[in-house]
Specification:
Radius of gyration: 58 Å
Number of helices: 0
Low-confidence stretches: 1-19
Mean pLDDT: 90
Distance between the termini: 144 Å
Number of strands: 54
Structural class: mainly beta
Strand content: over 45%
Oligomer: single chain
Number of domains: 6
Shape: elongated
Strand order of the largest sheet: 1-2-6-4-3-7-8
Amino acid sequence: MIKKLLLFFCLLPAFAGYAAHLVGGEITYKCVGNHNYEVTLIVYRDCFSSGAEFDPLASITIYDGGNNSLVQDFDIPILSSNKLPVEAPTNCTTLPPTVCTERAVYRFTTHLPPRAGGYIIAHQRCCRNATIVNVPNPDDWGSTYHATIPGNDTGCNSSPVFNDTPPVVLCLDQPLQLDMSASDADGDSLYYGLCNPLHGGGKNSTSTGFDSPKPDMAAPPPYSPVFYAPGFTPQNPITSANPVMAINPHTGILSGRPTAVGQYVFAICVSEYRSGVLISTVRRDFQFNVSDACQATISQMETQLMNPSTLCDGPQLNFQNLSRFATSYFWDFGDPLTNGDTSRLKNPTYIYPDTGSYTVTLIANPGDVCADTSYYTFKLNFPLSISTTVTGDVCFDKQSFIFNLTGDFSTNAKYFWDFGGATDQGANSTEANPKNVNYIEPGSYPISVTVEDFGCSKQIFDTVEVYADLKLQHYVPALNICVSEPVYFRDSSITDTRIDPYHYWDFGDGTASNEPSPVHTYTEPGIYTIEHSVQTLTGCKDSVFERFINQIQVYPNPVSQLDIYPTTVSIFDPTVNLTNYSENYDLTRTYLPDGEVLETFDMQTITFKDTGTFALKHVAMNDFGCRDSSIYLVTVEVPLNIYIPNSFTPNGDGINDIFTLEVTGSEKFSIRIFNRWGEMVYESFDPKEGWNGRILNYFEPAPEGLYTYQVVVRTIKHARDIKKHGTITLIR
């Protein structure tokens, strides 16, 4: 049956592409005499997958176990196939009909004489189901099934053979005991363990090599393991608990309780030992389907492990029924004082005569052949009732807290205080009533106390506030100042309160302020005493004050007053008289516009040298350094003068070619010139521009003759328009 001899199998339909349909497989062998071995390949597939049917021909390759060289390669036709029975773990369990696994058998016999390295028999195929949950990218992984024939097998060994097919479905939350044992024809010792599935083949559908879905021949060893997703390992391949999945190394019994629905890949390795020496290992690669659709009556009640609060609810218990696939119930509450301690309600309530321990029985579907019964012993205690009071001063320097615990608990109770921060007695205490506790720093501390008694626990919370002590700090200047000079007071007191403290400043002149850092101006001379007080209304309630006697000396101010006459003069007579009417002064200075300074005087005369408006500053000073100043304005005018010629000769000889005016003492000017027909021949707002004898100064020359003009000016002094009319003769 070697490939080159089995040409007729080439006429069978070819298998194209890859399909995620593999569930698992295994290879075993049996010695049939004279070093002839019957090799059996079993492959499992998912009936309901989108993958193809079993391969008509399975490629099985044999390598030298010492140097991995090729020995034989076969294409083996399928011998038989059948669906595995979907067997329930008990007669009272109904399994879902949506899971199906098929099993195919390939078998051939070959002669393998003893060899130093032994033999490795392998088959590879891709791919696995895409819905597997314990392997990342599961449909990227293929499978390698292999068995080993030991070196120098002069006795013609037979490998272990699994006794039974694996189950198709595991039921969620139901404990299992699966027989995964094997038999060995030679009577060798067998050892069982969970191990890694092996990878083989690939997704390259255009290839027939090792990376193809159906390799033309299996690759030589070594073989890569299939990597598990986070949270899974070869020894922990299925989500399970109470107990977790494990296999007995001596019996091959796989036990556990699946706790999550899904499809899981795993492998079981059976190793055979002879006289303590490992002979060979057979690996079963398989996929378990964990389903929550199994229907079996399960009796289950909420226990105190699930809900510890029932330990301390007193003698009344509210039972929670967690049974599955049940429609009727029978409760026996285990009260030894009565026979009426039963109920058929789903979630009953029972009041026991006292606290203590009671064993409760729950029968799901009572009277049914598949009824299920569960038991649980409840321990009942009265609820703990505790309260706390905390006494002590909230001011940091006075605190010394006492923590008082009261309530309904025994003298054997245990206590645990958490002070919420560092204290002079540590952060915790196991005393019932810790005393004289002082926090290291001010702050807000979340405290708690836990009391444990009769297996019950109660915790309550509170908060302790420790406020920094009030410390009065401020800046009160010692000053010699003048009247109306501002004084700045600054508060920097240390307070620790939710509401701003109350401030009171007494300035000693009959006025006060509630601002933290006020600014005050004294209006009268004198010597003043200052008082400042701070009061906190919340937190560390306290009041402190300080008095500063004769802290501020206020001196009188002089009065600066200067009389100037007149305040408006002509440039032709620019002299004014100054009279000093200042009061309470020792020195005056008058600052003139030209930079000259006049010291103290009674009367003074000054003369201006230019026109304009000028400011004089007069400063009065006394011996206390107080001063007063005043500003005065003097205006020196130019009188209004207008000179208008009566003729001009614009003939280009350079003499009297332009008609111009001379104007002084005005701030606004305009001139218009008209011919005898009333037509305007010139207009200007600049007295220096002049008329050149052309129409509007740009067009044709105006003819000789008499022209009239109108001049409008506004004087600086009177701020009104003055109009002048006249005639002018244009001579060519």
